[in-house]
Amino acid sequence: MSQTAAPPPVTTDRDRLLHDLEALSEVDLIVIGGGASGLGVALDARLRGLSVLLLESCDFAGGTSSRATKLVHGGVRYLAQGNIGLVREALHERRALLNNAPHLAQPLAFVMPAYRPWEVPFYGTGLKVYDALAGSASLGRTEWLGRARTAAQLPGLQTAGLFGGVKYWDGQFDDARLGLTLARTAAVQGALVLNYCPVIDVLHENGRVGGVRWRDALDTGGRREGTVRARCVINATGVWVDDLRRLDDAARGQDTTPMVAPSQGVHLVVDRSFMPSTEALLVPRTRDGRVLFAVPWLGHLILGTTDTPRDAVVREPRALPEEVAFILNESAHVLARAPRVEDVLSVWVGLRPLVRPAHEDEGGTKAISREHTVRVSPSGLVTVTGGKWTTYRSMAEDVLRHCRDAGLVPDLPPCRTARFPLLGAPPPDAPATRLTDPPGLHVYGTEAVDVQALPGAGNDLGLGLSEAMVRHAARREYARTVEDVLARRHRMLFLHAARAIEAAPMVSRILAEEIGSDGDLDAFLALAEQYRCVPT
């Protein structure tokens, strides 16, 4: 690997960060949005020498970027659609991500069970093409499995009518912690990044975007705000990109044609005993043509997902009863012990920012491209949306290419992120704890020693979360709320909502010691009830 990241900052004290922001008058690049796309741009730009400010209205990876199916993949179903270019790019980006953050992204084997005799050769042949497209970036070769080996590799699988299966390799990751690590890596390299600091206006001068106005969302008095000028402003707000585009268009007296067609993906988490395997299950085509995953992750099992068009763009989307029924019904066909509503430990939903086609028809979101789109408005606002976590790095590179071609940034040195280890990345030969194992210190990589040195390292709050981890989240990981800690620094809310409700008061007390706030405990308890209660 190339140059490693410098040691992490000692603290992420919010008063100091806001003081730095208030003292900042101008930068080369402002990134609006702290999800996968924005964080990738911030790190890439800073490594190329640009001065960078990133502002996020809520928490880093607080929206779509923490609600993925936890897969780093080339896109098997995109191969079936004939999108060879997207698959090839994603397969190579998959390898880069696993190399740069091996504590947060790792290889994972998938098994497709076959209940019809033609499925093994059909899917196996397609996955051999998948291997060939990966080339030297392959994570493992595709194998045809007989009935006995398929059942052995997926304990808990429904074996009645089983003919065999196909095993292939992709990857899995911890999406929220990867987002946080990108933010902290960019900060170590000199970028100023803040969460809970929304952009409330885009500034225009002589018909061109020239900066932003920001506000501290945690200042209850609403008095802490300011402006920063920039040569280039990036709109990387995911499913909310059209809101900023409306501000930009209104300044030019123009109407806005929406770019995004949101699609909702629901995930159910159940106990690992339903499929106690270190390999994932994939049903490539369910009875209604969708895809079903059963993914072991952090000691639990994720079942999903759905692909439902939604008009409303909300911070906390809710699962529809029919989506829950779909996942449970399809799981019952492939798992020997069918999960029921009462077995669901957490239900969570993400909105995908799919890019609207130029001419929409009545087809569902399955037909909409998953590729990203970059647009530069007449006033110079650069908007990026679409895409997926696996290709976040190449998306960032493409964004900066558009910025350069539009004359918004100077000629830039070559991109450095393809081989740039993120904070905490262990050496290539270091033993790694699998992400299929229960949560623990392993997700901190080389920073685990720093976490263990904090008070309360031996005080377990549940599911591997220690008091020291909460203190580390407050001191060095930008955490300001109970939700930040239990949803994204640790993934307890996504794994077991009832356990998160139990742990929340103690987390709140620790945050009060660290930052002088209860971390919006009541708001978190209400949110956790939403994750705990399954719509029927």
From TrEMBL:
Residue ranges of the Alpha-glycerophosphate oxidase C-terminal domain?
Answer: 442-518
- Entry superkingdom: Bacteria
Instruction: List keywords of the entry alphabetically.
Output: FAD, Flavoprotein, Glycerol metabolism, Oxidoreductase
Residue ranges constituting the FAD dependent oxidoreductase domain according to the UniProt record: 28-389
Cofactor section: FAD
SUPFAM superfamilies cross-referenced by the UniProt entry: FAD/NAD(P)-binding domain (SSF51905)
- Family stated for the protein in its record: Belongs to the FAD-dependent glycerol-3-phosphate dehydrogenase family.
| Protein's recorded name | Glycerol-3-phosphate dehydrogenase/oxidase
Q: Which organism is it from?
A: Castellaniella denitrificans
